[in-house]
Write a structure and sequence with these properties.
100 residues; mainly alpha; 4 helices
């Protein structure tokens, strides 16, 4: 039951469901930053929508939360880049954040 509710919520959000087959390191290196960046972009869109509706409190709370997501993304990218020492950094292009 809980799994069905989670999938229904994910479907309504417009975001892709987590890649459950990404169990090896190369797959996770690709999936994680991209997924976190999608979440950041969705949060930014929600901030803009809240601003357009005149909801300053939601804008403030969402902006704080989005800053934390941005920190998480930078930390994740830095960690993955360090682990992939000597290799070309392709993560930046895959997880590029669209700024308003």
């Amino acid at each position: 039951m809980t799994n069905a509710i989670a999938r229904e919520t994910a479907a309504k959000s417009g975001r892709k469901e987590a890649e459950l087959t990404a169990s090896d390191e190369p797959s996770m290196r690709k999936f994680l930053p991209h997924h976190v960046a999608q979440h950041v972009n969705a949060s930014r869109a929600a901030i803009e929508e809240s601003h357009d509706l005149g909801d300053a409190i939601t804008v403030d709370l969402s902006t704080r939360r989005t800053r934390e997501f941005n920190k998480d993304l930078r930390l994740l990218e830095a960690h993955l880049t360090r682990r992939k020492a000597g290799a070309k950094n392709t993560l930046r292009r895959e997880s590029q954040i669209v700024l308003p």
